[in-house]
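Slide 14.
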Amino acid sequence: MAEYLEIIIDRFIDVKKPEMLVALLVAYIDDEIDQVEFKLYSQILERLLPGDYRYLYNNQKATTFGAPKDSSLLRLVGLGLMVEEKRASAFESRLNGHLSISTSSIDTYKDQKREYCRTEFGNKFIEIVDDAGLIA
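Slide 15: predicted structure.
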């Protein structure tokens, strides 16, 4: 584990990341998270940008119209810390029971309201890091 920590810390650029890693390590030592979760969180921590913590902390839920354009939201979804609550679809149901897709349904789909929320995994990350007072 010591070598793993050394490699992760060596890759951090942001000064808050080592402090967050310590908070995650304490959560692991206190059995709040297991070793697999600790390694997942530490690898995710490496990929987050400083604004992403604040975005995740401030947004239990987020709403966009059309595809998300905020890079923080895209990163958080990609890392499994947030998820689209209700997946929109461009498919339309026909009377014969079949599904179809048309130019108008694609246009409607592109502009639909999309709602995102924190995952349990994201909530746990925020809880650990926030308890350590690292998101201010």
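Speaker note: The longest helix spans residues 16-29.
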